[in-house]
Amino acid sequence: MGLSEELVLPISRPSKGASGRTGVWRVFKPVIDLQKCVKCWQCWLLCPEETILADDVPKVDYDYCKGCGVCAKVCPTKAITMVEERE
Amino acid sequence: MPLTVKDLMKMEGAYLPGSAACPGCGLSLSFRIASRVLGKNTVYVVPACCFSVVQSPMPLTSIKAPLLNIAFAAAAAAASGIKRAYETLNKDINVVVWAGDGGTADIGLQALSGAAERNENIIYVCYDNEAYMNTGIQRSGATPRGAWTRTTLKGKEEPKKNVPMIVAAHKAPYVATASVGYPFDLIRKFEKALSIKGFRYIHLLSPCPPGWGIDSSTTVEIAKLATDTYFFPLYEVENGKLRITVKPPKRRPLKDYLSVQGRFRHLSDEEIERMEKEAINWWNHLLEMEKMESIL
Q1: Disulfide engineering: B124 pairs with which of A11, A64, B97, B254, CB 3.0-4.6 Å?
Q2: How many domains does chain B have?
Q3: How far is A64 from chain B (nearest CA, A)?
Q4: Which domains does chain A have, with CATH numbers?
């Protein structure tokens, strides 16, 4: 084996879920009531994890959402409720 | 035209979901927003801090941008070198340091001071979670008076080191404080920093749910309270001219901010009163400085 094959360069590559599927950390999950949603996108703006998807309407990326609850707190119409995760 | 949420949605950020950040992290939130404003033409330099952990373990990273991890004391020096190399190659690339308060107020202070004094053409962002958080909540120079950490069990006795004013004293072209409590103020300050040449410093208040003993859902709310109680005023200093950018219509009592945080739970009413006096003093001082042609 040549030197170059043994050499591991300390370079990381960008990837979604670089720390795994962080959705499994969640204790409470945000559920959006689209009847109440006024599409102000405060939840998208203030989600610390980039897990509110900016579609036609806001959607939660449950694979990676850690369930912090910031979106529910900042929603002006209280359209987001935090529901306990159950098996 | 100031940027709106819709504009930001069209801009590409450098943060990918599924990082190692704690739920409700103020750092990942501010980076998500700021990286959109800073744009694709940006290289980041990060000393040892929470952000080195948030990136996730090798060989993957949650940051979709060129990023150099460097030793604690060296961020501003490394960024200076990178920027000068790009300038020599005639490449117009933003070089941005994204450092914690330990790597800014304590260990990285001399490199920061050197780069500010040389007026290096870089943006230095300090996200201030007010202690060494990823190593287990030890006090830093930026920990405020009264705050519990694992090395200040009765609350820190000394006041917080005022890093933005230290940098302003270097006559840096642009110095600002910002917080996720006022996201559009933060966005405007990053836009402004981009439009200026020379050393630019932005000090972000970054609430830390595990370190501050707050609920992870309250990150934005608490950051806003810090400004509304005058505990963390938002201002900018442009070529010596100071301007307070967010003036809460009515000051909220400091107790509203302190009582919701575990790290301040032990404080007596007298101690809170003393801290409130200090905060109001500093606010009045800022109001005085705002009237001046130049604070330097």
Answers
A1: B97
A2: 1
A3: 5
A4: 23-84 (3.30.70.20)
Containing domain of residue B114, as a range?
5-291
Q: What is the predicted pLDDT for the residue at A87?
A: 65
Give the tokens for residue B44.
Answer: 């980041």
**Residues of chain A with a CB closer than 8 angstroms to some CB in chain B:** 10-22, 25, 40-42, 44-51, 54, 61, 63-70, 72-74, 82
Pull the structure tokens for residue B223: 């950051």
> Which residues of chain A does B29 touch, with a Cβ-Cβ cutoff of 8 Å?
46-48, 70
**Cα–Cα distances in angstroms (integers) from residue A17 to residues A10, A71, B20, B35, B121, in the given order:** 19, 20, 9, 19, 34
Residue B290 to chain A, least CA–CA distance (Å): 30
Look up the CATH number of the domain holding residue B227: 3.40.50.970
User: Does residue B296 fall inside a structural domain?
Assistant: no
Question: How high is the ipTM of this complex?
Answer: 0.94
Element (H, E) at B32: helix B26-38
d(CA A12, CA A14): 7
- What does the pLDDT profile of chain B (296 residues) look like in tens digits? 789 999 999 999 999 999 999 999 999 999 999 999 999 999 999 999 999 999 999 999 999 999 999 999 999 999 999 999 999 999 999 999 999 999 999 999 999 999 999 999 999 999 999 999 999 999 999 999 999 999 999 999 999 999 999 999 999 999 999 999 999 999 999 999 999 999 999 999 999 999 999 999 999 999 999 999 999 999 999 999 999 999 999 999 999 999 999 999 999 999 999 999 999 999 999 999 999 999 98
φ, ψ for residue B262, nearest 5 deg: -60, -35
| CA neighbor of B149 nearest in space, from B168, B136, B134 | B136
pLDDT for A7: 74
Question: To the nearest whole angstrom, how far is the Cα of A7 from the nearest Cα of chain B?
Answer: 14
Angle, CA B104 vertex, CA B233 and CA B253 arms, to 5°: 25
Q: Copy the structure tokens of residue B145.
A: 């008076």
* pLDDT, position B131: 97
